[in-house]
């Protein structure tokens, strides 16, 4: 009886291997999972630092600095991944990510100025999460499923943040830019080649 | 080197499994097994190419997490069997090797899949 089960297990293992390989090979993403995870870590640190700021202005500056650091990490990690597969960062995924994220980042920047002028500070974090989510979804349409799903999670969190008490702001930022990047980054590392 | 010896061990292991299977009333399922794609890395290459129109040597190497030597040996075997096609070109100054699954390769994978499924069914009915 033992060899029978052994052959059956082996056959099932082969089928599983085929399915997993096909999943892994289906659109090979240029987005670096490790880079996303690193962004998650710096965002968590930024949320702790931002929470300690005495004014909203300094809170915004902290997150702007984090945004700058994150874009450097994203660029560097995607370039590294592109080099590993001997492709150019600006010939594929890098260009797609840049063009899909840029409009929502620009819109986010302008809306931040307008909302800050109008004194609507509490709506800014929700708006950031929402717009970042839309950019990620747009860029992720031609990428692996994890990317648009991450965008959807950002949008859901942003929508929730817009209708939640302002005292939860830092938590939303930490869960969104920290937690979601860490979680989806780990998925990309595990399933889509680093 | 370690990966190559692992591949050899797996080949021996698979052969042993099939021999045992034949010896235990699975004669109808095992003899038709396609040895070319039964090897783990070759099966991986075929599966990865089935999910993509084409993949470069570097992409396959990254996906399969293997060495240059190992990949080229197994890719050549698949090419010789007519399961994959290989084209070489330059992208700027960089030489590129691109692999595609042929119609023969796709049907070999389909046959292999139905073979595995029928093997599982037979084992369940025993």
Summarize it.
The complex is a heterodimer of chains A (194) and B (126). Chain A is mainly alpha-helical. In chain A, 79% of the residues lie in helices and 0% in strands.
Helix and strand succession of chain A?
Answer: HHHHHHH
The coarse overall form of chain B would be: elongated
**Number of DSSP E strands of chain A:** 0
Q: Determine Rg of chain B (CA atoms, Å).
A: 16 Å
Pair with the biggest interface: A-B, 26 and 33 residues
Helix content of chain A: over 70%
Global mean pLDDT of chain A: 85
Taking Cα atoms only, what radius of gyration of chain A do you get, to the nearest Å?
20 Å
Q: Which stretches of chain A of 5+ consecutive residues score pLDDT under 50?
A: none
H/E element sequence of chain B:
HHHEHHEEH
Helix and strand content put the structural class of chain B at alpha+beta
Percent strand of chain A equals under 5%
Number of helices of chain B: 6
State the major sheet of chain B: 3 strands, antiparallel
The low-confidence runs of chain B, each spanning 5 or more residues with pLDDT under 50, are 1-7, 13-29
Oligomeric form: heterodimer
Tell me the major beta sheet of chain A.
none
How many strand segments of chain B?
Answer: 3
Task: Give the CA-based shape of chain A.
Answer: elongated
Secondary structure blueprint with pairings:
The complex is a heterodimer of chains A (194) and B (126).
Chain A: H1 2-25, H2 33-51, H3 56-84, H4 93-117, H5 124-140, H6 146-162, H7 169-191
Chain B: H1 2-23, H2 35-38, H3 40-50, E1 55-56, H4 57-64, H5 68-80, E2 84-91, E3 94-101, H6 103-125
Antiparallel strand pairs in B: 1-3, 2-3
